[in-house]
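My current task is to audit a protein record that another person submitted. I need someone to confirm that the C-alpha cell line plausibly describes how this chain folds. Take the sequence as given and treat only the C-alpha cells as open to question. This is what I was given:
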Amino acid sequence: MESSSKSNIQRLIVIAQHLRDYKGPPSTYDQMEQKIRETSGKVTSLVGSQESASPRVRYAKTFRPKKAAVLVCLFEGDNGELRVILTKRASRLSTHSGGKAEEGDEDDGETATREAKEEIGLDPSLVDVVTVIEPFLSKYLLRVVPVIGILHNRKAFKPTPNPGEVEEVFDAPLEMFLKDENRRVEEKEWMGEKYLLHYFNYEQKNKKYLIWGITAAILVRAASVVYQKPPAFEEGNPKFKFPKDVNRDTFMS
C-alpha cells in the first residue's frame, strides 16, 4: 500500500513538471490585444522623463473584457486515474459570478485559488499551481484564464460549499473530456462566426450531472494539454470578437 502511494505521488510530480513546461499557442485574445497595440501608436511617457518626439496618439476606445480565472484542480483517483474537482452551481445564480480578478490578486493563480477557497473551502496551500492555459471567452464576455493545479493530498480537502454560490461539489475523470461519449453538441453563432457548445452527461453515485458551456470547453482543452493529445471531436471554441457597443446586457446568445 505504501509503495502504491509513493508511485502515485511520483506520477503527479511528473505530470506537474510536464505542465510547468507547457507553452500554449497564441490565443485569439492575444492577437486582438496585439492588433490594438499596433494601431494605437505611442502614449505619453512616464512622469519626470523626457517625452517622445513622436506625436501623441490616443488609444482607440476599444472594449476590453474583464479578467477572470478558474481553477482546474486535478487529483489522482483510487484507480490511478486523473480526476477533476467540479461544482454544481446554486440554482439561484443567474450568471457565472465567481472568478473575477480583484485588485489585490497577484496573478491568475491567486485569483483562481482564492475563488476556490471562497466557493468550496479548498485551502490554497493544498494546491500546487503548475500552469495556465489559453484564455476563454465566457457567455457574459469575461476573459477567463484556466489555471491548472494539482491536489496531492485529496483526503486533506474537506469540501465546504458556499450555499450562496455552490449547490454541490463532485469530481469526474479528466479523460472523459477527450472522448466522444455521453456528449452532444450545439452549433451557435457569435458575430458572424460559428462555434460549438459541448454538453457532457456524467453520472456518479446515482446522481446525474450535466457539464456544458465554458466549463466543458475549458476541461476539453485542459485534458488535451495534460494528456498531450487532441479530443476525438472538433473543439470549435468562439473567437475573441466584440461588438462596437457593449453594455451590461450584452452576452453571447
Residues 2-20 form the longest helix (19 residues). Confidence is low (pLDDT under 50) at residues 38-60, 93-97, 249-253. The chain has four helices and nine strands.
